[in-house]
Amino acid sequence: MSIIVGFVPTPAGEAALTAGIAEAQLRNEDLVIVNSAREGALVDKSVAPQDTLEAAARRAANAGVTATIKQPPYHNDLADEFLDFAREVNASLIVIGLRHRSQVGKFILGSHAQRILMQADRPVLAVKPDGAHF
Description:
Blueprint: E1 2-6, H1 11-27, E2 30-34, H2 50-62, E3 67-70, H3 78-88, E4 91-97, H4 103-109, H5 112-119, E5 124-127
Parallel strand pairs: 1-2, 1-4, 2-3, 4-5
């Protein structure tokens, strides 16, 4: 079994990575760091640069955790495909970061994090960046 972290290069993503590493240490499990882009997108701010992903893997290794980086493109729905991937790797825990969104933003755009929390068939740890107030 492993722990899967949804990682984006933001404070929320860094918080998720930190929590994922801590949980992997605690449970003595491997870590799978997932960073995905919509298939065919020319630019996607959620895609981490290679050096950022390598630094994330080094952070895990320095903590004694074996980490794998996965960047599967998603085709239709990020939340559904992320949950499918969690099942595929038999994740014992999903770790995601939360960011503040306005009520209108939540209503119009929906929330991948909310859908992952509500639809996951395994435990989900949702964390927010240090100092974040919602």
